[in-house]
Specification:
Structural class: alpha+beta
Strand content: 15-25%
Shape: elongated
Number of helices: 28
Largest sheet: 7 strands, antiparallel
Number of strands: 20
Helix content: 40-55%
């Protein structure tokens, strides 16, 4: 779940949060290593006869966890790992009376393990609460009472008002209202609900009042069943230093063999011990997590929450981003785009007066948007008497005249003449705008066009990602007409748009796309996006997204803007560049120390200083993200990459159903220009 403190506070609390999550007891882990190091430093000037024995005992106690891990690994796997080299190196030097070097090495090794544990996120995520603990007024056995959502029962009658979330699946038994089902079903799903209609958990009542009889609660709801797919995601515990640790494990036996060979040739124990320092785990374990931690802090300070080191690694590899449409690239609500009159005697404001007044008391998405648009233009509305309304039309009496606001098909069915040629060729069809005609006493006065508005930052985000070498896809449950228009305006290439996709189809499309890309990020905000998010390499969502989408996300954009995604990818790439630099630096120092010990009899203390000096410099290099400047997003100069005129100039090729069938059947899901 998201931490309560965010942005800068999230950064400041990162170490504390991670430590608590992994239960790191710093006092217990560093007590004996620090004591052994201090004793080895103090023993030389004191020159007490019993000092070497005391230091040896403390050193053995400090090395005990290392030896225990070595034996446990041998018993479990039957194969040596890098810990065996550390164990032998400490044992040999301790036996010869060289206490300081192994004590210092143990301290640094334990530091490496702690840093590595802080970087690792186990992937254990709390299952999201399927029913948020809100209070609802209900009627039970003829009595009204206020209860928590968790105390609801089947057959309870729940009273809902504007802004209330539906607590379970049920049937409307009273009232009428406008329900936002986008979070559950995807697309622009603002739908009316009245008596005997079904409603589902997580839906939002935006207007009106409803009385809902509960039929399914908790794990039985449709939303809960959809969320079950998220639990199947293979969360992996990932530690950055494991890359080189694997290589180090493979070098264990060759290093031991080289040590024996050197001793046989030179009969020098210091030279023979040198190959045992061919252990990448120590230096890499210290330096590799630092740029990751620093980058996580820096990202959080810049309003981007990356949940783990593994998520940061995957984000750096992303070469394709798949976007949901509604709520991600576009706004959720309906937006009136333009008004056109067909009679010279009727002005736009007069057209809006008749149309908005007719829709004033109707609970429909278009009706609410039209009334708001008219009021925004300071058009004074009057009372109306709705006679009939549906998703396709509204019929009302306004000032004693019959007003019809409906689709081309609805007006035709009522015998109201509409210019068919005007309807077929109208630009609004291509511009992702739906059309409603306005008729007064069976005479068409004009038309109103509406659509879902694009996010201001969508176009610049797509353009920035393309410049970064990242392919962009649009995958939505909306119609192909709407998807194609949005994709073209934002510059998403033909063949990269897939419409009419169910949550299950989205997962299939991601599986196909993964065959041609190294890592895929999926950006979504609804419950219906959760299955696809759980199967993407990186799941991205917003702070204001649904609880389930936010819980599923590896990356949360805390400012609810898409541009944070570009900055997050850049931050992740820079972090991985620093990790690779640190690996090269530490590895080079490690090899140099081994060579120096074998061929030039380099002292043990000098070897430790060189090795760990390189690790220290690598750590300082990895801290650079902490001192990076504040995030600067590209200026938003235009909301689309291609204007309406360009879109209108393309003769779109007629084809069959546009949807996920294209990619699943081996064909494009995007309408291409002829």
């Amino acid at each position: 779940m998201l931490p309560r403190r965010q942005s800068g506070a999230a950064s400041a609390a990162w170490g504390e949060t991670a430590a608590a999550q992994h239960r790191i007891d710093y006092g217990e882990r560093f007590k004996y290593p620090v004591l052994a190091l201090g004793a080895s430093v103090a023993a030389t000037p004191l020159e007490l006869p019993f000092a070497p024995a005391v230091v040896g005992i403390v050193l053995a106690r400090a090395a005990f966890p290392l030896w225990k891990r070595t034996l446990a690994n041998l018993k479990k796997t039957g194969r040596p790992n890098a810990d065996l080299l550390d164990s032998l190196w400490v044992l040999v030097h301790g036996a010869t009376g060289e206490m300081f070097a192994p004590a210092l090495a143990i301290c640094l090794t334990e530091t490496a393990r702690v840093l590595r544990d802080l970087t690792a996120i186990t992937g254990e995520r709390r299952k999201p609460d399927m029913v948020p603990n809100r209070q609802y007024w209900i009627e039970r056995k003829g009595r009204r009472r206020l209860v928590l959502a968790k105390d609801l029962r089947k057959d309870d009658h729940v009273f809902l008002g504007p802004g209330d979330r539906v607590p379970g699946d049920g049937v409307v038994v009273g009232g009428d209202g406008l329900i936002d089902e986008h979070d559950l079903l995807g697309g622009a799903k603002l739908v009316p609900r009245t008596a005997l209609d079904e409603v589902y958990a997580a839906s939002l009542l935006t207007q009106g009042r409803l009385v809902v009889e509960m039929r399914r609660l908790g794990a039985e709801t449709r939303m809960a069943q959809m969320a079950e797919t998220v639990k199947e995601r293979p969360w992996k515990e990932t530690r950055i230093s494991n890359y080189m640790e694997e290589i180090g494990n493979q070098a264990v036996m060759p290093a031991i063999g080289a040590s024996a060979l050197v001793f046989a040739v030179t009969a020098s124990l210091p030279r023979a011990v040198a190959p045992l320092q061919l252990d990448f785990a120590q230096g890499i374990g210290v330096s590799a997590p630092v740029p990751v931690l620093a980058s996580l802090h820096h990202a959080a300070q810049n309003r981007i929450l990356v949940r783990s080191g593994h998520a940061l690694e995957q984000l750096a590899k992303v070469d394709a981003v798949v976007f949901d449409k509604t709520g991600t690239l576009t706004e959720r609500g309906v937006e009136v785009g333009s008004v056109e009159t067909s009679l010279s005697s009727v002005s736009e404001d007069e057209l809006l007066y008749w149309a908005a007044s007719a829709n004033r008391y109707v609970l429909r998405p278009f009706s609410a948007a039209l009334v708001a648009y008219a009021e925004g233009r300071c058009v004074a509305l009057t009372a109306s008497d709705p006679l009939d309304y549906s998703d396709s039309a509204v019929v009302s009496h306004v000032d004693g005249r019959e007003i019809v606001v409906g689709t081309f098909q609805f007006l035709e069915s009522r015998g109201i003449p509409v210019d068919a040629e005007y309807h077929r060729r109208h630009d609004g069809v291509i511009l992702n705008r739906s059309i409603r005609y306005v008729a007064r006493d069976r005479e068409v006065l004009g038309a109103i066009f509406f659509s879902n508005a694009l996010r201001r930052e969508s176009a610049v985000t797509i353009e920035t990602l393309r410049r970064m070498g990242i392919s962009c896809y649009l995958l939505t449950g909306d119609t192909s007409k709407s998807a194609n228009a949005v994709a073209y305006k934002l510059g998403i290439r033909p063949g990269c748009t897939f419409a009419e996709a169910s949550p299950e189809h989205k997962v299939e499309v991601l599986s196909r796309l993964r065959r041609k890309h190294r890592a895929i990020a999926y950006v979504g905000d609804g419950i219906n996006d959760a299955p696809a998010m759980s199967h993407a390499d990186v799941a991205v969502s917003f702070q204001q997204a649904t609880d389930l989408a936010r819980e599923t996300a590896d990356v949360v954009l805390l400012d609810d803007g898409l541009q944070g995604l570009c900055y997050g990818i850049e931050t992740a790439r820079e972090a991985m560049r620093l990790v690779h630099q640190n690996i090269v630096a530490v590895t080079a120092a490690n090899i140099a120390v081994v060579a120096g010990g074998v061929f030039f009899n380099l002292s043990t203390v000098s070897a430790v200083v060189v090795n760990n000096g390189a690790a220290l410099l690598a750590c300082l290099n990895g801290m650079r993200p902490l001192y990076a400047g504040e995030r600067r997003d590209p200026e938003i100069q235009r909301t689309t990459l291609r204007d309406d005129e360009s879109l209108l100039g393309i003769p779109w090729r007629k084809r069959g159903r546009a949807g996920v069938d294209g990619i699943l059947g081996g064909h494009s899901g995007h309408a291409e220009p002829a």
